[in-house]
Amino acid sequence: MTDLVSPVTHPKGRSTQRRSTGFARLWQRADRPARLYLSLFAVVLLVTLVGPLLAPFHPDEQSLLARLRPPVGFDRAMPAHPLGTDQLGRDLLSRTLHGLQLTMLIALVGSLISLVIGVTLGVIAGYARGRLGSAIMALVDIQIAVPFTLIALLVVAVFGNSLPVLIAVIGVSGWEVYARIVRAQVLSVSRQPFVEAAIAAGAPHGRILFKHVLPNVASAIIVVWTMTFSAVILLESSLSFLGLGVQPPTATLGSMVGLGRDYLASSPWIAVVPSLVIMFVSLLVLLIGDWLRDALDVKLK
């Protein structure tokens, strides 16, 4: 007779078999395209962290003798500047590496601020309901109705266009998306029998929220964050393009596009190089968010 091997259990009955983490389980379920997206995004994060250390020049170093040089492969190109130079002779590769780091930092901090504000208000609106929930949803409607560009112009005119102000402006730009989705999820989860049983048992509201409600809406929050992160990158680039973002000579991807718009006819690489980076990162995050939406959807399992 063949012996059946069973896992060794803890004295309290819990299995001692090693459980894989949430990311490991997602990686195991990922198909080949999803693994490619995740690997490429890991490379982007690595370049964001160490890229400025590998930059061949200082991002603000000017050389008028090397101005308006095209990328390698075109006439008048210089091997020392593989992506070309701008109108002041600054190396585009160095400025792109520094601009990517600053753009990702602004987008990451700004999106996290939106996430915290939106999730907090969405949970309150969905769990408390009543007049408080109606007041929060009225704020959401106001945020949607008012053009955000006008809000950004007003804030920049009053407080200036420093980096903290830009991050704060981006942070309050998309919280209404989180609030609406989280409110709907909380309304659905709060009607489940296990939540009603916890309320009937007299469990504190904080325990119900953090142990029963939030874990069941966490997947939706993750998906919304990945889907809106690319929008935050585009928003920062748009504000910098309009002159409302980080001011020259500090490089961000959006400001590089804005400075290169006057040279599109004669030297298009000045704006095309940062534009391609913005497009690549935004598309990559959108593809990851689309995959996460399917991977975390319990209805598709």
From TrEMBL:
Residues covered by the ABC transmembrane type-1 domain: 100-289
InterPro entries assigned: BP-dependent_transpt_permease, MetI-like, MetI-like_sf
Membrane topology label: Multi-pass membrane protein
Keywords for this protein: Cell membrane, Membrane, Transmembrane, Transmembrane helix, Transport
This protein's GO CC annotations: plasma membrane
PROSITE patterns: ABC_TM1
Entry's family note: Belongs to the binding-protein-dependent transport system permease family.
Protein name: Peptide/nickel transport system permease protein
Source species of the chain: Mycoplana dimorpha
